[in-house]
Amino acid sequence: MASSFEKYQKRRLITSYFSVVISIALVLFLVGLLALLVLNTKKVADHFKEQIALNVYLKDTAKEVEIDQLQKTLALADYTKSIEFVSKEEAAKSFSKEIGEDFMDFLGYNPLQNSIDIYFNADYVSEVQIAEISRDLSEKKFVDEIIYDKPLIALLNDNIKRLSFWILIVSSLLTFIAVLLINSSIRLSVYAKRFTIKTMQMVGATKGFIRRPFIWKSVKLGIIGSILAMIGMAVVLYYLNKSFPELQLITDQLMLAAIFAGVLLLGIIISWLSTFFATQRFLNLKTDELYY
């Protein structure tokens, strides 16, 4: 009979530890992903900004030396990420492929123009800066027209600001919830041993002596949960980087190391503090109060 009871208690204890580890792992996994999202928000935003192009259309009278000089000037400019020269012949081929027929057959000539597509560094993608760059380029005599998507730039910048704000708010809220969930799981684990705590206290054990094994056990569970969370984060990060290599999510090794170390440290600190206060609470209760 005693053996069966001991087995039952052992299974109950293992289940309790398992639930604590899973709770810690899931919560820290979400917190870690949010940290990755917050710290990579700028990188993702910059990637989208750098896809916006300014199209500089050149007059047919533009000399080759003028075009070459403009390309060199643009390539050396601080605001330039990259440039691409598109000849009128290349533009005609692309347009014909797009519409599914050779439009020059019935026009008899190529109405398109040579152009230079400018892709900007993310810091320069704003309505004011691009308008200023566009104005400077339009002053050149061999430049016929400059086209870029003004509404898209305004919309992109507004949405990035709004998204960054809400990501920060949601991250803070979920971090707070994470602390509460881990704390509740550990408190329930310690609650299952409240009579053991009180028995040790009644035979003369000091509070520090009683707390020590509980804290050490919870810290170990916190470390295990953190490791599981980091494994999950690494898997998600691997697949995201594989799906979106242009975002270069794993290039900043120092930032990734800081996030993973932060997840591990968070798991240890929350486990330690939660166990400390939980055991302290039961140490301060009277024996009759343990049943409520």
Fold topology:
Blueprint: H1 2-49, E1 53-58, H2 64-76, E2 80-86, H3 88-99, H4 104-107, E3 115-120, H5 127-138, E4 143-147, H6 150-191, H7 194-202, H8 207-243, H9 253-284
Which short descriptors sum up this protein?
single chain, alpha+beta, four-stranded antiparallel sheet
Give structural notes.
This protein is of the alpha+beta class and 292 residues long. Helix content is 72%, strand content 8%. The chain has helices at residues 2-49, 64-76, 88-99, 104-107, 127-138, 150-191, 194-202, 207-243, 253-284, and strands spanning 53-58, 80-86, 115-120, 143-147. A four-stranded antiparallel β-sheet has the order 2-3-1-4.
The biggest beta sheet reads: 4 strands, antiparallel
Helix and strand composition category = alpha+beta
The number of domains: 2
Uncertain parts = none
Question: Going across the major beta sheet, what is the strand order?
Answer: 2-3-1-4
Give the proportion of residues in helices.
over 70%
SSE arrangement, N to C: HEHEHHEHEHHHH
- What is the global morphology? rod-shaped
Q: Kindly provide the radius of gyration, computed on alpha-carbon positions and rounded to a whole number of angstroms.
A: 32 Å
Tell me, rounded to a whole number, the average pLDDT. Answer: 79
- Strand percentage, roughly? 5-15%
Number of helices: 9
> How many E-type strands?
4
What is the rounded distance between the termini? 27 Å
